[in-house]
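[User] I have long wanted to understand how a fold can be written as tokens. Those tokens are not coordinates but codes from a learned vocabulary of shapes. Could you go through the record with me and say what the backbone is doing? Thank you; the sequence and its tokens follow:
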Amino acid sequence: MAARLVRDLVRVHPKPFVIAVSGAAVFAMCTVASSVVLRWVIDHVIGPRFSDGHVATSSVLIGLGLVVGIGCIRAVGVVIRRTFAGVAHWRIAETLSADVIARLVAQPVAWHQRRPSGELAARAGVDVDASVDVLSPLPYASSTVLLIVVSAGWMLFIDVPLGLFAVCVFPVLIGINLSYQHRVDRHFTAAQDHLGRLSAAVHESFEGVQVVKAFGAERRETERLAIIASQLRDERTAAVLLRGSFDSVLDAVPALANIGLIVLGALRIRSGNLTIGELASMIYMFTLLVFPLRLIGYALSALPHSLAGWARVREVLDEPVMDDPADRVGVAPDGIGVSFRGVAYCFEQDRPVLDDIALDVPIGRTVALVGATGAGKTTMLRLAAGLVGAASGSVATVAGQRAIVLQEAFLLGDTLRENIAFGRTYTDDQIWAALTTAEGREFVAELPNGLDTTVGERGVSLSGGQRQRVALARALVREPALLLLDDTTSALDPSTEARVVANLRVALRDATVLMVASRPSTIALADHVVFLDAGTIAATGTHAALLATNPLYRSLMEAFEVDRGAMAPGADARDVAGDAGSGA
């Protein structure tokens, strides 16, 4: 798995990684060469100076030139390795993040509805960062392998018995590294999973902060996040404790080996089988190898973390893109704006939300969907918008732009212009015309910077009604052939709401409007009313006709009116409207 991980990561941007490995190889060869030069300097410069009292100037210059030259080449290798290792690391991370985001964007809304947003954000963020952690030390680790092979050959060439003693230490150090990796792997995998859960839970809690505060659930949310955080802490602590033990052993083994080399080397010098320069060269080489061997340990310690992150990234990248329900929305027959033919839909098996819905809405008509909470009104809008797919039956709409405006308006922390254009290019005249129809021109004109006013995260600087009108303008500027409104005007006062609906009838006289409504005065403005009860169409007709002929419909309208009349002074009208008008 480790080799496959490295192969897959390097394949993303191979060139900078290969250059980094090449620089590391130059560094490794220069490290061995520096040991050879040290031997030469001791035996031909320092030794003769002590034994003969003098040394040739040419020998000093040659030694100095070798030391400086190899040092400079080694420094160049270090610069190349570090520079291009960083380039490879960040380019690969950038590409992986873009690939994950592209795959998330490619998945339809129905796919996202079954997964926590925070969990998905973690895959493109912390999991990608974790998966590329192994790349930074990898070029150095590869040079260490080369260094071990070449230095082992050099030490055996100098003196076989002493070389064998030094070389035997290498498998011990590598074995310690492998043992550490095997033991710490499960802790890093569990920690990465807990980190993803924590990210999802925090995102969810922040998203629903108003609900949390409204129900006084702050302590419950704090305890929930604390449990996940404690699990993450425990796994990370276990990994750190193992790392501490690993570092201690890795420090002790080379230190003891150096003592052994000095003792054995002194005996070999006394017997005449080794020179002082050769022993110094071997000890210098072995000392230089200690830190690179720790880098192998660092690479191996990062490997479990990277494997855990990579596995979570691959879950997203390897999952096939679901069929987009929008592709299953057909083209309605001539003269029909939206058509439902035997449509059924359920969130859970054996719990249908809609059952055998049959409805044709002519082009240019405004139809209100009315029903109690959970009747299936919002689901019908989502089916028409192509956000979800029908379990059976077919949905067809008029050719052209479809636009849906949800009850809870979502605004970016950007300017009003960007929130309305939403990635497209429109003239100011087009934007102002859309705001005029949505009854938002007046309040936008009064803002300090007009269309260029930044509204803050989620439009926090605007009231609920203002956010709804901006969201409606966002849909209207696209000149949709089918406009879907999910209780979009619930936060507006009745007179403003009536003006908005009247404006829509004028501006969209050739378009079809399908709207969820809960305010009787708004429902009365629709051309036709579709009354839903328990996921089926219970009755259709004008508002006045249904009031006169359908007791259940009349009872629901009376309940809406009673609920509004019972509101305490100063209460937000959208609270009641939202409760009455939100469909399952």
The chain has two domains: 2-318, 331-577.
